[in-house]
Amino acid sequence: MNTFTDIGISGDVLKGLSALGFEEPTPVQEQVIPLMLERQVDLVSLAQTGTGKTAAFGLPLIQLTNAQSRQTQGLILCPTRELCVQVSKDLEAFSRYVDGLKILAVYGGASIEPQIKALRKGVQIIVATPGRLNDLIRRNTVDISGVRYVVFDEADEMLQMGFQDELNAILAKTPAEKNTWLFSATMSREVTAIASKYMTDPVELTIGKRNAGAENVSHEYYMVHARDRYLALKRIVDNCPNNYSIIFCRTRAETNDVASKLIQDGYNADALHGDLSQVQRDQVMKKFRSKTLQILVATDVAARGLDVNDLTHVINYNLPDDNSGYTHRSGRTGRAGRAGTSIAIIHMKEHFKIREIERKLNKKFKQCRIPSGVEICKNQLVSMVDAIAKVKVDHEQIDPLYAEISEKLGSFDREELIKRIVSMEFNRFLEYYKNAPDLNVSNTRDTAAKRPGKRDRPQRGESAGGGFSSNHKFTRFFLNVGKRDGVLPQGLIGKINGVPGVGRIKVGKIEINRNSALLEADSRYAPQILDAFQHFKINGKSVSIEVAKENQGSTSRPPKPAATRHRKGRKPKTA
């Protein structure tokens, strides 16, 4: 196995890699780096996301840059702000010990003045989104006339996002004599076009098979009736208790709808789409990267540039319109040598799309059955028992309380105590999936028409939104905080579902007024909900909560999913 020294990395760049713990190059780095360092060539490199492409172009770019000159010598173009920031941070880490080297990320959604100020001081490498860089060019505040290396990162996505005019304007300001390096996951028509237009006799390096999916990703699909898509999604998520996943939807409206239903049903989820402000987007991304958010529901455009290495699942709530989009989606999992699973939820008319993607990726999909309620309960139980077995006991805190705990629980024998502990956490799943119908359909119309249990309405235990049936008992609560205090539905739901030892609590209607709020929640947990809001503050204001009186707000039911009502038609906010 080669080392970074073997492929030409030396000096302070090598020192920076060693400090980061990098020891062996990935296959894409082994092929790309020596070529870039030894020859002045244009290059097209095709490799999946998560294979080390940033280091593949970043390390030679840093090593070839003259840090003693203030002139901009390297330009990296990225499709999104998130990718731009991530690439810039990576290059700064690689060049930690290179004296005098300045790297700057320029992107929209942030103040332009600090970026202009930094450019005036001198920057050798610029990492930019096309829109913001083009704006800086029009203002005559950036000089790229001395650029020696231009990198297109995620080139196919950049063109699919409509940046052709910006790219033309930017490259017109660069010298004719330069090297252009293009990195992409797929060799789409757009990438072929950019290679022929902006590059001279480029060398093509394909790591793995052209347009193939990541090797560490398994591909599965579940076939259901279109009306059962959300219920199937919930079962897939529930069947993998420790999943850390992105759910892809085709439109912003659908992204909002699915995220709202998941939040309403108590899942640790949020939405990411183009209607979010940059501040809201950053908040969601921060929560997801730190794993305080388990499930991210996103559109393709919004998820571009999201760099997370340990996703367990990518779930296609809808298949993308373009088959190459599936390659990008599935490449978000199975990164950095880890295994991942890409799941597609389809209906019968979409079966041909799976076959098309199989041919394109040269991968075989496994058709799986939507798990039954019994299967899900078993998996959840095993996961819960494993979690209990791994709990570390803080004896210093627990021992002084042990006598009182022992007195209260001493009357139960071992078997009864275990059953009670399990039931406390597990009754919700047992109740929800009791008599749960089979959601699976065959891929033949005749079999589907004869399928037992075919239904037009949700059955016992499942509502149209995927929660408990609408006759479930709710208690209404009145809170002394409202819109002026920054109260949001998802924040209240998150607080309720943070009640220890209960799990997800069903939430009904939420009304947020200017100075107050009303919410409905499962009556069985009213004492725990009241207790959860004690000593709680929202934006510095102490919250008081009480069971609502008859004249405090509306009592109309059945409840509509609160997150859907409050988020639809406007920009969602994060709590």
UniProtKB/TrEMBL annotation:
GO terms for molecular function: ATP binding; hydrolase activity; nucleic acid binding; RNA helicase activity. Residues 441-469, 548-575 are annotated as: Disordered. Residues 2-30 form the DEAD-box RNA helicase Q domain. GO terms for cellular component: cytosol. Keywords: ATP-binding, Helicase, Hydrolase, Nucleotide-binding. It comes from Candidatus Desulfobia pelagia. This is DEAD/DEAH box helicase. Belongs to the DEAD box helicase family. The keyword Transmembrane does not apply. Residues 34-205 form the Helicase ATP-binding domain. Signal peptide: none annotated. The keyword Repeat does not apply. Residues 563-575 have a biased composition (Basic residues). It holds the Pfam family DEAD.
